[in-house]
Design brief:
This protein is an alpha/beta fold. Helices cover 43% and strands 21% of the residues. The protein is elongated, with a radius of gyration of 39 Å. The strands form 5 sheets. A 5-stranded antiparallel β-sheet has the order 2-1-5-4-3, with helices on both faces.
Length: 524
């Protein structure tokens, strides 16, 4: 009997289709990986290299991968910090997480930066069995960031250097003005002088203060840029400020044969402003009008009140005018409208920029109008007003005696300043010991008990800051710093060193006397 066979037929079409789809998918994934800009690597759980995409080998200039297989991928990185980051990424991925970092790999000898992500490859039980490390080159981005950072650092360095230069320049220019201003202030308040002479000295004193303010324009620009400009508003007669402005600019206008008219007709003309700052505004604007008005022209300063009672101060000239384009940037620093670059007009182009900042700091407004080139210009300042005080705001008080005589140590190496300061304080009844160096100051302080110290900061053999630290360590005493430097950081340093007050040169002697009068003497 022939043998019997049993035939079993099984339809494997679906399985074949699934396997073919799987192979197609794998091939598709392989093509994606090979065409990718990324360098794809398979690592074991210890971080040893098992495989690398062909595209990755090309990017890393690796002609033969075989010698690298089984080697530590962590050791591929050049810098110790990058190797540490790679080790940490492997440990995170092995624990089931994801590690990433940016590192440098030289290819060959040329630094190239890569963003790296290391993730686990899980088995059927969901546990890491291998690691997938994907690197993408980011050299262009890193170099761009480094260039931007370097440019920012260079800009900051240049800005600091500029600020330091301007501060030093301001210091050198202001220091010689101190003895002149102190002498003028003392003479202005001397009842023995005729009223006419005191009035002339008052004009000299105001011009010195404005000269100092002009020197400060450069530092003001720095303060404005950093948002650190300070004002001290008090009730002020705007008409009185404009009268002072008229005194200052009258000679300049007559020298150019430009007529100046002041028509101060506002019924309400008091405002809460910093008088020194607003004197600066009016001086800047009127001087600007005179500068750009040719001989035979005129400048008219007028005041009026708006419907709300605010005061409008207008400065109208018949000068060179401003084009519509120029009006859009007339208040920008270092610009002079259509006259920019024409050195015959002089100036730095800072006055209007600073004036706008000052006016806006007082919640006021300033605008410029012009019918065009050759048709003159009008600048208008608008401010809220306040009621006039019942008593006059500014009266020259006679020179007063101090509340008590003080024993003062004055440390100042500028001869004229030291001489005038010593004379005026002695005349006020104080007992003065004047020295020029840190060494002599410490010797005098050790030999005598002083009620207060007045010291410059820049001394031939050291800093007034160091001097004050040593003095306060030995025996605390009230101290006043005199300095041509007056930025916020300068004031902070003097306070930290132990100074109780900081006066910026040129020093007003009345302000110095007020500080001395407020000194509290110890009980003997």
């Amino acid at each position: 009997e022939p043998p019997m066979f049993t035939a079993t037929l099984r339809d494997i079409t679906e399985r074949q289709r699934a396997e073919e789809a799987l192979r197609a998918s794998a091939e598709f994934n392989r093509k994606i990986i090979e065409s990718s800009r990324d360098c794809v690597k398979i690592l074991d759980l210890e971080g040893r290299l098992l495989s690398m995409s062909e595209g990755g080998q090309r990017q890393l200039c690796i002609p033969d991968l075989a010698p690298l297989l089984g080697k530590s991928w962590i050791g591929f990185w050049d810098a110790a910090a990058d190797r540490t980051a790679a080790q940490e990424a492997v440990l995170k991925a092995r624990a089931g997480g994801s590690g990433n970092f940016t590192g440098v790999y030289a290819t060959p000898g040329v630094p190239r930066w890569w963003d790296v992500v290391v993730t686990p490859m899980l088995n059927a039980q969901g546990e890491p069995e291998k690691l997938l490390a994907i690197s993408r080159e980011v050299t262009g981005r890193v170099l761009s960031e480094q260039a931007s950072k370097a440019a920012a650092e260079e800009l900051a360095r240049s800005s600091r250097a500029k600020d330091d230069f301007l501060a030093a320049l301001s210091h050198e220019l202001r220091t010689p003005l101190t003895p002149v201003l102190m002498t003028a202030t003392a003479m202005e308040g001397d009842p023995a002088l005729p009223a006419e002479v005191r009035g002339q000295v008052s004009m000299i004193r105001r011009n010195i203060e404005l000269e100092a303010r002009l020197i400060d324009d450069l530092l003001d620009l720095t303060r404005i840029t950093h948002g650190k400009m300070k004002i001290a508003p008090v009730v002020t007669d705007i008409h009185q400020l404009l009268d002072h402005t008229a005194e200052i600019v009258r000679s300049e206008g007559s020298g150019k044969q430009v007529r100046t008219f002041f028509r101060l007709e506002a019924a309400r003309h008091h405002a809460m402003v910093d008088p020194a700052r607003f004197q600066q505004v009016f001086w800047n604007v009127v001087k600007n009008a005179l500068k750009f008005t040719p001989s035979g022209g005129s400048v008219t300063v007028s005041t009026s009140n708006d419907a709300g009672g605010g005061i409008l101060v207008s400065v109208e000239d018949t000068g060179i005018g401003i084009s519509p384009e120029g009006l859009s940037h007339i208040f920008n620093a270092f610009e002079q409208g259509d006259a920019a670059g024409q050195h015959r007009y002089g100036g730095l182009g800072l006055g209007l920029a600073i004036s706008r900042a000052i006016v806006e700091a007082h919640d006021g407004a300033i605008r410029a109008d012009s019918a065009g080139v050759g048709r003159g210009a009008t600048f208008t300042v608008s401010l809220d007003t306040v009621d006039a005080p019942s008593a006059p705001l500014h009266e020259s008080a006679p020179q007063r005696a101090p509340a008590r005589a003080l024993r003062l140590l004055v440390v100042e190496d500028h001869e004229a300043t030291r001489t005038v300061l010593t004379r005026l304080l002695t005349r006020s009844g104080h007992h003065i010991t004047a020295v020029t160096t840190v060494r002599d100051a410490l010797a005098a302080f050790a030999a005598e008990r002083f009620d207060a110290v007045i010291s410059d900061l820049g001394l031939p053999d050291g800093s007034g800051l160091d001097l004050m630290r040593e003095i306060q360590r030995q025996r605390p005493v009230p101290a006043i710093a005199l300095s041509g430097y007056g930025m916020e950081d300068d004031l902070r340093q003097t306070k930290e060193a132990g100074f109780s007050a900081h006066l910026v040169k040129p020093v007003n002697v009345d302000q110095l006397r007020d500080l001395l009068d407020r000194i509290t003497l110890p009980v003997e």
